[in-house]
Amino acid sequence: MQAFTRLDAKAAPLPLANIDTDQIIPKQFLKTVEREGLGRGLFYDFRFDEQGREKPDFVLNRPEYRGAGVLVTGDNFGCGSSREHAPWALMDFGIRCVVSTSFADIFYNNCFQNGLLPVVLKADEVQQLMDEARGGNHVVSVDLETQTVTSPSGASFRFEIDPQRKEKMLKGLDAIGETLQKAAAIDVFEMKRALAQPWTEGA
Questions:
Q1: SS3 (DSSP) at 186
Q2: Average pLDDT, whole number, for the chain?
Q3: Which of 2, 60, 66, 152 could pair with 137 as two cysteines, CB 3.0-4.6 Å apart?
Q4: Which residue has the higher pLDDT, 188 or 147?
Q5: Tell me, what DSSP letter sits at residue 149?
Q6: Reported pTM
Q7: What angle do CA 111, 103, 146 make, to 5 degrees?
Q8: 1 domain residue, yes or no
């Protein structure tokens, strides 16, 4: 998993509440377990018309927001089903951080296993970020070490995060990576078990 330390990126405002995981990545894109390529399905029904043509008014299709790395959105982002493809699609599209007033629990937890940082701010702070993102300067800074989001105008907002999750994000550790940190101890345990219980090793 890619570590998250500091991100300086364009912020795209998406002022919609209750965006569910089927809107983030529609069901027709769930036939794969590969993470690469899912970005093409991100917000598909928002981004494309029935003929597959881009809708020019949707924020992520507008020239000034192409390449956005931060999504500033409405309340209860990621509700609905528990599909892990949702954070995969966001990451594959290039979005590393989503800012909202609240997230659905399962989506929030999935984010940390995939290197996507979910940031919870107060409603007025999210609104300010959205308002500034609509202006000429769209670049915000997200610093995980200091737990701050800095708006284009220089306003700084602090967010809370579980210390253990923060440490894992800074080091780029998902559940597998965390386990592999103890690989040497696991190997020693397995060798001792094999010597003490050789019948468990099979033929």
A1: helix
A2: 88
A3: 152
A4: 147
A5: E
A6: 0.84
A7: 65
A8: no
Kindly report, residue by residue over 119-149, the tens digit of the pLDDT: 999 999 999 999 999 988 889 999 999 999 9
Give CA–CA dist 100/102, Å, rounded: 5
What span, in angstroms and rounded, lies between the C-alpha atoms of 161 and 163? 6
Give yes or no: residues 92 and 180 share one domain.
Answer: no
Specify the length of the chain in residues: 203
What's the pLDDT at 83?
82
Q: Are residues 123 and 179 in the same domain?
A: no
Q: Which two tokens stand for residue 76?
A: 């209860």
d(CA 126, CA 76): 13
The domain in which residue 11 lies consists of 6-172
Instruction: Please check whether residues 110 and 150 belong to one and the same domain.
Output: yes
19 and 44 share one domain: yes
Regarding whether 143 and 201 lie in a shared domain, the answer is no
